[in-house]
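This follows on from our talk about sequence and fold. Go ahead and set the record down below:
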Amino acid sequence: MFDYIMIAAFPVFAIYKIYKNRYLLKKFSKTQIVGIALSYLAAISLAFVCIYYFGNWAAGFAPNSIIKFIISMAAILASLLISISILNKVLEKLTNGVLPKQ
């Protein structure tokens, strides 16, 4: 049941964020908006692949569940930091320094 609530909440949250930042989106051309959307999708995909494959692979070598948890958390944190830093650089070039907002 919780899965369905989360699946339904994601589009609502995305629409809310787009509506909230509509004044900012008006500054960009349509190609920039498509590039921004693709950049976010690429960053999410990169983080997912790194977490799922690298995290599971590295945690498979751990002898107990506590170490597996620590390795999984480290993989998640590293993947997110790398994805966010790449996304920020791409968005800065794509939007001529307007995004990411500090």
Q: What stands out?
A: The chain is about 80% helix and 0% strand. Helices lie at 2-20, 22-25, 30-59, 65-94. The chain has a mean pLDDT of 92. The CA atoms of residues 6 and 48 lie 17 Å apart.
